[in-house]
Amino acid sequence: MEIAKLAxxxxxxxxxxxxxxxxxxLTPEIPAVISMQSIQEALVLPARRLTPMPNMHPVxxxxxxxxxxxxxxxxxxxxxxxxxxxxxxxxxxxxxxQVGNIPLGVAVHRVEGSVRLQSDQIQxxxxxxxxxxxxxxxxxxxxxxxxxxxxxxxLEAEAIVQASVLRVx
Length: 169
Prior knowledge:
By secondary structure, the chain is mainly beta. The protein has one domain: CATH 2.40.50.180. It has helices spanning 2-15, 76-79, 157-161, and strands spanning 19-27, 30-35, 39-46, 50-51, 60-66, 69-75, 91-99, 102-108, 110-117, 122-123, 137-144, 149-155. A hairpin with a 2-residue loop joins strand 1 and strand 2 (30-35). The longest helix is centred in the first third of the chain and has 14 residues, at 2-15. The protein is globular, with a radius of gyration of 18 Å. It starts with a helix and ends in an 8-residue tail after the last helix.
């Protein structure tokens, strides 16, 4: 009995090692993660809760008022050059990031949950990923699923928040 408890404890502690990341899908085919250190919350909101702003870059979906805080919300897949969200959608899945004192909402296809990754699992994306993604990536990581392996894009929240299209001149 004691050996079984020890094995279970070791198994749990091994699963709990590494840094926590929020896993989400940029598109139905592209999974990605962002460090939980930068995540404030993830939510699904009716599209009418975003206030569109005229004459803004197409990546900008609008302003979000959440808990008396105003933040820009962007189409993350479009920023990364991989896809566009369906603009006729009735609701958005939004991940609220906070980098330093800069809040930013990023609309994604869907949120899946959290995963833990060790730093040695994150590999260089060079030669594996489209060049347009590289400035926003920390790297790529393989996640073992029950029936297959999945490549996760490990995104850098700071690089996303500092994207040139988000800067106001």
